[in-house]
Structure prediction request, 142 residues.
Amino acid sequence: MKVMVLNGPNLGRLDLRSSAIYGNLDFAALTAFIENSAKEMGFEADVRQSDSETELITWLHEAADAKIPVIFNPAAFTHYSYAIRDAVDMLTAPAIEVHLSNPLSREEFRHTSVISGVVKGTIGGFGPDSYRLALMALKGLI
Ligand code: DQA
Prediction:
């Protein structure tokens, strides 16, 4: 079973962001962690990252057309991108929102997710394990 694991802006430079908030993994290590966790659970993870709203929307359309489930860390787009929300709403297989940090324990602008209302559920605050927990949840949904 395939799963698309999409990641939004600035996550490709994870190792250059605050380690107090995001830990010490770089994006390549996070990708390997997700791929290995997925394999253990019988999934084949297609992990992608983009800083471009357009590219993320194109990938969401691709997942919708292929009926592939999506685990999605929309990064800062979480908080304001109605275009991404609309694309997530058009998905045809389960979608789960994930965050490395817990946005609700951070600045007020991070307390709003325009994505949460159109996904099965949201997991945040567990670092890379947020993705692993999302894979476990997805297994239960499929
Ligand atoms: C994030 C949280 C967002 O608020 C932030 O803009 C990110 C990463 C997370 O994974 O914790 O870029 O989605």
Notes: The domain at 2-141 is CATH 3.40.50.9100 (Rossmann fold).
